[in-house]
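Quick start: read one record
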Amino acid sequence: MSEPNYSSYLEANSPLIKAKKIAVVVLDGLGDSILSLPAIRFLVRACSQSEIVVIASSLGAPVFTGTAQTIVFNPKEPDFKAKLTEALRKGHFDAVLCFTEKGYALSAVYQSGSPVRCGFFPGWSQPLKSLALLWQLNYRVPFSNNPHIDQKIHQTARFFLLLEKLGLKTPAEKNFPELTLELSTEQLAQGRQALAQALGIAESELKSRRLCAIQLMPRWHKEISDLAKNGTRPNISSETPSQTADQDKHFSPYWPLLQSAALLYKKLRQGGYTPIFSCAPNDRVWVDTFAQDLSHNLREENSDTEDTVPVFSDGDLYIFASFLKNCLFLVTPDGGSAHVSAAVKLPEVVFFPADNLERNLTRWKPWRTTCEVVVKQDKNQDDETLSQNLYEACKKICP
């Protein structure tokens, strides 16, 4: 199938026609960076006469490898906001599109001096911010940030609204550029090697295993984030099963918070799968602690087992994506890992909180991939029910 002529979508009166340099500000996390890929690839192809520069966060920047040149910022660095403003000024961009809605980014876009400044306008859902945007942006796309309003548009398609505002006609979704991460042979090999090492087996054994990944992140339980930051025991309320005095000798504070993940791991093993936990590097300490707890628990339940619960973690986006390519499916809360999985066309089970479910599914469900959605009803939902619902969804996508 031949690629569409994207330049034909550029209207004659578009302010981008004569633009020599265009900046796209995407200072968001991994998930939104991936979801912006089709729109940015469309812009690059439609405005082939222009130099396109993506202003990206250190977390999201690897997504744009091979798509556009990037200027990378770490929002945690000192003077980050001043450096961002300076980069936009010195870039002398003819147009700046602000994909992010963060206030500091919009302020920097205004101070860039670019004659074309385009971004989202929340209107009455954020009245004070909207007042500032009246002078910060001269091309504004109305889009409410009221979480109770479902505007029936996916985040991937939403970014195209900014391009449309600047005279780039939005193509039919079937003609959107691909949302994919291209993996080299070397990266795929590194992913296999890292996976085999995490499992403690030879690479030749990988194909004989029914491998599946379970992504652990603070979204599994509301108290994990605070615990990971503070390193203190959480206030384990009645919603979480308490541990006996004897168990407290062996189990960390993370153990009762992740019972649904532990139960899912056991169900998958019993069902003939080989599950492995994965996590971001900055979550590795508490995930390792939980994995040790689960290993101890498995030995208590079966004294014959000597298994160590495996954990995979790699800060390289493409190694993580290659790791996923070696699995049959991924189980994850809604987040960046779900969109990495979609970008390598891996089937997945994703669970969303019940709050504002319709809006969140419309906007952030993984894009164009086999996906089963499980709803986490509320904080009081018992772990057995959640783990069983996740397991049943796993069997649907990979019997």
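The chain has two domains: 6-175, 185-231+241-397.
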